[in-house]
Amino acid sequence: MSAITLSDHEFKGDLWVFGYGSLMWRPGFEYVEKVPARLIGEHRALCVYSFDHRGTPEKPGLVLGLDRGGACRGIAFRVASGLRERTVNYLREREQTTHVYREVMRSVWLDNDARQRVSALTYVADRGHVQYAGRLPLNEQLRIVRQGHGRSGNNRDYVLATVKAIEAEGFRDAQLHQLAMMLHDAHPLHIPAVTQVEDSP
């Protein structure tokens, strides 16, 4: 559960990456397989102020992180062993621009026939970082998301794209869906019937 070092990637074998936010709909790296997966012990939350991709220090946005407690459904991507180092370097450049995340290995359970457990690279919110927002009221989340715009685009699109990716996997995240409906104002999202509901802490 400690931060990864390059030496950890020198051994042979495929790399698993767990995506729970924008990686679900824009991984940005090559993979040979993607499988719905579940991580236990941390949950998806809009708990990180964005000073770069979806906001600025003057007008921050709000992006997802894994925060302690509960569980999180997402996608596990299997990366071929020959692309391990390239993929890790890409993810560090993308996710660690301000070092608000801790780069960790976590056990995730794959939603496949074997129901296997694998160790996957993922990014967890650093609670000691100045950009850690904690648990904000929904109205405050709405205010920040509406103002946020960074080098990867506006914050609203980020939230709506993540909700769409979650729906495509056949489940829902209650708080994110509520925020998405507020962002749509008079045009709420059509939320299809789902069989499972995202765990909350």
What does this structure look like?
It is built from five helices and nine strands. It is an alpha+beta fold. The chain has a single domain, classed as Gamma-glutamyl cyclotransferase-like (Hypothetical upf0131 protein ytfp). The strands form three sheets. Strands 1-3-2-4-5 form a five-stranded mixed β-barrel. It has a two-stranded antiparallel ribbon with strand order 6-7. Helix 3 packs across helix 5 (174-183) and helix 4 crosses helix 5. The radius of gyration is 16 Å and the shape is globular. The protein starts with 14 loop residues before the first strand and ends with a strand.
Features:
disordered C terminus; two-stranded antiparallel sheet; about 25% helix; single chain; Hypothetical upf0131 protein ytfp; globular; about 200 residues; alpha+beta; 5-stranded mixed β-barrel
